[in-house]
Write a structure and sequence with these properties.
By secondary structure, the protein is α+β, with helices and mostly antiparallel strands. It has helices at residues 30-40, 59-73, 90-93, 102-116, 128-135, 139-151, and strands spanning 9-16, 21-27, 48-56, 84-85, 123-124, 155-158, 162-165, 192-196. It folds into 2 domains: 9-82 and 171-196, GIY-YIG endonuclease (3-Layer(aba) Sandwich), CATH 3.40.1440; 84-165, Orthogonal Bundle (Arc Repressor Mutant, subunit A), CATH 1.10.10.
Length: 199
């Protein structure tokens, strides 16, 4: 296999046999990274049939491309950046809350977002700190308002990712993920290489 160009970083995409995008990542040595995935990602690595490498001049450029690719292409097994952000409706959230019933008012606003369908299954909702800033209340009050929705299973906390409307799982069932094309054209100034695995 050719050596990585000096000082460059690859954005790699792993595809299944059906051309479904399984995972997106970055590395200055995608072959070594592939071996690492084989060792530690036994849930999905055996599903990989091909890899496409796209080279960038710097790691920062590759990192930006990685985030954009995950958000736009929604690979099946990426967790970070792989979500739709729930809308934060100004009409519902912008007015400050006063008085002793702040937690109940925020809970009612959360309930309105859910019942209206603006916050849908799989979406990441705003954090308690975002809600606190918008409503001019404390983070503690907002966390208490969120708690009943988490306890009854309407919302789920996913460590390091945030709070999501259930059901949410980073490894979504095949039916919810559009199939991607394995052979992607190279962008101007970048090198893309396709590597097939297996026979």
């Amino acid at each position: 296999m050719p050596e990585a160009p000096q000082g460059r970083t690859a954005l790699y995409r792993f595809y299944g046999a059906d051309s479904q995008l399984l995972y997106v990542g970055i590395s200055n040595d995608p072959e070594y990274r592939w071996k690492s995935h084989l060792y530690r990602d036994s849930k999905w690595a055996p599903l990989v049939a091909s890899r496409v490498d796209e080279w960038f001049e710097s790691r920062a450029e590759a990192e930006a491309a990685e985030v954009a690719a995950i958000k736009a292409e929604q690979p099946r097994f990426n967790g970070a950046h792989n979500f739709i952000a729930a809308p934060f409706s100004p009409g519902i959230w912008s007015s400050p809350i006063g008085g002793s019933r702040k937690r109940q008012v925020i809970a009612a606003r959360i309930s309105e977002e859910l019942s209206s369908g603006r916050w849908r299954a799989g979406m990441r909702i705003p954090s308690a700190s975002q809600i606190a800033a918008e409503t001019q209340t404390s983070i503690s009050t907002c966390a208490k308002a969120l708690r009943p929705f988490i306890q009854d299973g309407t919302l789920g906390v996913h460590g390091g990712r945030g709070v999501f409307v259930n059901p949410y799982t980073p490894d979504r069932p095949d039916g919810r993920v559009p199939a991607q094309q394995a052979a992607l054209p190279a962008r101007s100034g970048h090198i893309a290489r396709l590597h097939n695995f297996g026979a």
